[in-house]
Amino acid sequence: xxxxxxxxxxxxxxxxxxxxxxxxxxxxxxxxxxxxxxxxxxxxxxxxxxxxxxxxxxxxxxxxxxxxxxxxxxxxxxxxxxxxxxxxxxxxxxxxxxxxxxxxxxxxxxxxxxxxxxxxxxxxxxxxxxxxxxxxxxxx
Length: 140
Fold this sequence. Notes:
Distance between the termini: 42 Å
Shape: globular
Largest sheet: 6 strands, mixed
Number of domains: 1
Radius of gyration: 17 Å
Order of helices and strands: EEEEHEEEEH
Oligomer: single chain
């Protein structure tokens, strides 16, 4: 069953979204804290997601979007480096190597019926097998 959010939290905007992020090991790159929820205004959800992606040097791919009785909006996003690419040929001369590395990074976005003007963000799993923003991550 979905938990309803408590109303005693700070609601962030696109101007204050960096307060939900922490510094990562890479200078100038921020990171989301796994399993720590933060809330933004629902009308700024897309702007905040874009800003989080830029600040954290990560891209998110939509995998699952559904609606329920207590939830107006529920979206699960995975890191763009999730999964594995299995080539059909033995040698890939003309192609660059795949960036798919089996990353388990997952971000959930929810809007509850009880609080329709707030949007809950939660990093479910941290990035694995790569470091967002590192030179190895962006060199290709």
